[in-house]
Amino acid sequence: MSDTSSRTATVTGRHAADATPVASARALTKVYGSGDAAVHALAGVDVDFTRGEFTAIMGPSGSGKSTLMHCMAALDTPTSGTVVVDGVDVSTLKDAALTRLRRDRIGFVFQSFNLVPTLSAAENITLPLDIAGRKADVGWYDTVVDILGLGPRLGHRPNQLSGGQQQRVAAARALIGRPAIVFADEPTGNLDSRSSAEVLGFLRRSVDEFGQSIVMVTHEPSAAAYADRVVFCADGRLVDEMRRPTAERVLDRMKTLGDL
Ligand SMILES: Nc1ncnc2c1ncn2[C@@H]1O[C@H](COP(=O)(O)OP(=O)(O)OP(=O)(O)O)[C@@H](O)[C@H]1O
């Protein structure tokens, strides 16, 4: 559950959000299959994600949330429309440039953690930088590890860590390269409420204290309440948005969309 009192305290010290969107989509469509079997997963989405903000994407099951996130994160190719991430028009990029964009400017957190089982927590955290041939900024590495309380676990492999600890490692890995944007797909879907609060609290703090931009798909109103803004999907379109959400208001809005 969101701790609104501590959040209000940190918001005061937050980085000013930059007016230029960190990622945007225009007239975005995604059709799976064809003919009678065609599914219009995205039916024309226009959206801007503000730099330095935490945005949650909510909506009923099948409304297009994951498809939207995957198209925005260059993990999937739209049928039509444009996606711009950190000033780069993703549709113009060939495979190698797309790989670089994902590696250098985007951080990912997935529901299933997606850690490399043979690597230690420390090695998992720095993996994106190691692949890119970059060195971790030692001060930043220490800060992230410290905030996430991972110090005593750095030598452990994923199967020696709890789900919450694994997701904290995944969150550290997403942020270690200071990406322009972090996309999180149901990051608390496999976590208990305490571990969820730790991961969401870290994401919130990274926005407030370090100006990180985050977009998160979630089913949970209590998770969406950590965001600055919630956008609501239904039938492949964005149908509404809410600023300064609370779990109660998000839940009420979701009921009118036919979910929960
Ligand atoms: N690879 C695919 N092939 C065919 N249809 C797909 C594919 N991926 C998604 N869809 C369909 O596209 C629509 C949107 O799916 P999407 O996963 O984006 O929704 P979602 O809002 O993320 O759902 P959930 O909350 O259940 O994860 C659904 O009707 C889904 O069945």
Provide the low-confidence segments as ranges: 1-14
Envelope shape: globular
In total, how many domains does the architecture comprise?
Answer: 1
How many helices in DSSP terms?
9
Can you give the mean pLDDT? 91
Strand order of the largest sheet: 6-7-8-3-9-10
Q: What is the beta-strand fraction?
A: 15-25%
Give the assembly state of these chains.
Answer: single chain
CATH fold title: Rossmann fold
Helicity range of the residues?
A: 25-40%
Series of secondary-structure elements, N-terminal to C-terminal? HEEEHEEHEHHHEHEHEEH
Question: Could you give a short account of the major beta sheet?
Answer: 6 strands, mixed
Number of strands: 10
Structural class: alpha/beta
* End-to-end Cα distance: 17 Å
Which second-level CATH architecture applies? 3-Layer(aba) Sandwich
CATH superfamily: P-loop containing nucleotide triphosphate hydrolases
CATH top-level class:
Alpha Beta
Keywords: ATP-binding, Nucleotide-binding, Transport
Domain ABC transporter: 23-260
Protein name: ABC transporter ATP-binding protein
GO molecular function: ATP binding; ATP hydrolysis activity; transmembrane transporter activity
